[in-house]
Amino acid sequence: MPAEHSHASLPVAAARRRRLRADQARQLADLLRHQILTGGFPRGVLPLEDVIAADYRASRNTVRQALDLLRGEQLVHRRAGVGTVVVCEKYPHALDRLQGLAETLHEHGTVTNEVRTVGPVSAPGPVARRLGLPDHTDVLCIERLRRLNGLPLSLDLSYLPMDVGGELLGCDLENTDVFRLLETVTGGPLGHADMTLEAVNADAHSAAVLEAPRGSAVLMLERLTHLPDGRPVDLEFIRFRGDRITMSGVLHRSA
User: PANTHER family attached here (predicted)?
Assistant: First the structure.
């Protein structure tokens, strides 16, 4: 019986070792990803596998698995004669300030907008209610493909009440954040925004527009922006390419 028990436990032990190595690879990938995104490899080339193994006290197999995970995310690529190189830059989007995309990413290049839709539409019930309007009230609908240095970054869909949004018709929506235009129209700064962030799979339409693989993960930001008096004026649904953006902020724990 003891011999049979020992023999039966061999596959279990092997599975545990594989699971442990997979866990370690995921944890190492998280650390390397952070280094990549924060400029920890300024020449854009990761150290050799044995150097990573020594620095992080990991096995070579674990290092290889971690690099495979990062290659799967299209963050790095193996280049013959060079090693593992960073091939995709992600841009930081702050979550602790209410800013438009061009304001947020001004240090990283030029944001331009392809206006795909602009004009009045009958507001669906959920949109009207979020904006504090009767159902089927006309609202201004704006859909823009936003690019950073020519690369597709986000697909933005905005709904605005017509008394405010109507003033944006004829404005330079191709080169100006909606927030900037709203502040010009209303004559003062915006107030606050309610925000939800989640990961969703890219549908066929948004994947094609963003030039992303169909079904790949995108970051969906839903944001309802208010004037200082509390009136909601801008309901947005923004799909970011998850491989080109990171969300960051500073959070303070209340006493």
Answer: GNTR-FAMILY TRANSCRIPTIONAL REGULATOR, MANNOSYL-D-GLYCERATE TRANSPORT/METABOLISM SYSTEM REPRESSOR MNGR-RELATED
